[in-house]
Write a structure and sequence with these properties.
Elements: E1 35-37, H1 51-56, H2 71-82, E2 84-88, E3 91-94, E4 105-111, E5 120-125, E6 130-135, H3 140-147, E7 157-163, H4 165-169, H5 176-196, E8 200-202, H6 210-217, E9 225-234
Antiparallel strand pairs: 1-6, 2-3, 4-5, 4-7, 5-6, 7-9, 8-9
Helix pairs in contact: 2-5, 3-6
Length: 235
Amino acid sequence: MDISNLQSNWHLNIESDQQKGAEVPAFQKEWNGERHPLPEPDFDSFTGIDLVHAILTRRSERKFLEQAISLTELGWLLFATQGIHETTPRGSRRTSPSAGARHPFETYIAVFHVEGLDEGIYLYRPYEHELLLVSRPENLREQCREALNGQGWDAPVIFLWTAVPYRTHWRYPGRMPKLVALDAGHLCQNLYLACAAIDGGTCAIGAYDQEKCDALLGVDGETELMVYGAPVGKV
């Protein structure tokens, strides 16, 4: 059993690309898809449940109502997981923590029943708080079901997170796999708690078909690869 990626190895003296003066990796992926601006989060609309109650009632939900999610609600969930508070020359401070403020993730969503959006795969751009259309695959529901090993549970939207490993490797060589995994947990827990504010729920998915997920999102599986999924719906 190889546990090396779980061990603390901060004593290793590995010079990073940051220390070598390498250019800072791009903070978000460039994409030229059809733009869909999101409403600015109306925080006053999401104050009907307190944090203590959200934590105590947090559950993994696998059954969802046949009810659409509004664009405002979707915008809230996206902001709650990767929204930006502040930008810095070497990163950003967001709603979920990340080692060294590297934030290695890209947020894709498979949309099935969101008011104001056609079915398809979209990419969230946190700096602009907007969605870009990536593709409109045929039989998207069935493709998601196969890629997620039969999971997805007919949710109106499925979050599909990829990692761009070099964003973290640039600062933390030798430690990147562990840090990306830790950051993914922070990210998804924010989604769990944010869902409570819209009478919704989610269920983290770590068991998926890597090649099918990467192909569905159009990523190469090396410089960018699927790492986590989470269907979201009303409960």
